[in-house]
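agent> step 3/5: call structure_predict on target 'STE24 endopeptidase' (Actinokineospora terrae).
agent> reason: downstream docking stage needs a structural representation; sequence fetched in step 2, passing through unchanged.
tool.input:
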Amino acid sequence: MGVVFGLPGFVSSLVVVGLLAGLVWSAGWVVWVVAVLWVLSGAVTFVPSVEALLAKLMFDMRPPTTVEMTRLRPLWESVCVAASANSSKYSLWVEQSKELNAFAAGGRTVAVTRRALELPPRALEAILAHELGHHLSGHSRVSLLAWWYELPAQGAIWLVTTAMRLVLAVGRVFARFGSSAGALAATLLSLLLLAGLIALNPWLLLMPLLSPLLAWSRRLGEYRADATAAGFGYGPDLVNVLSGWLAAEHAVRRPLRVRMLASHPATADRIRRLRASR
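tool.output (status=ok):
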């Protein structure tokens, strides 16, 4: 499902790559070759060394120290035994964060924060089982590919947005000194930049429109990873971990927009689903 909702970002990036290639080379066949090469470039995310590099760029990660690995490795092995999975297929990392968290990336990266390493063994195993669930269902691989294929489109959006901000800043300077004509010209120019971007690549309009649906599909992935961990026998332990998180949240209700764009479901909903599945 996430693949479908990520399609506009992929097509938008393809258009951006084609336009850039057309600016550099006039030959139509060269543009097609560049576009095909870019589509095939997603295969590099399957290379272990590239995946590790991208994970480092996306997150502030490092390899575990000897002491951390001594604690982490046996717990990971226990989870993989419960799941009948090959533990050596995956790479363990530590994220430089004081928050209690863990994540799966690409096809083999599993990371925990330094604070997560302080959890009791069974609780940490439950979190690792959840992340293994992401890998077994392919969520983490799809997320990395989506990030990769959205880069050109995101770059184009950033470039035009930055240009618009600069133009509007100039307009505010004109307005401050009493030049309403200059301010109006700056506003019209920024709108022209936005209209030009949409005209060249109308697929970009779908990216923000589909963002809530993409976030919804990611929340479904979290529910599935929870269910997978519960299937390995970690349901009660995961409920205990989530209950601790829920208590730390102080029952603060998130605004509707935040809930719609959140990549993770509400902790209370995750607990409710886990308890209902027993």
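agent> step 4/5: record observation. The chain has two domains: 1-46+141-200, 52-137+213-277.
agent> proceeding.
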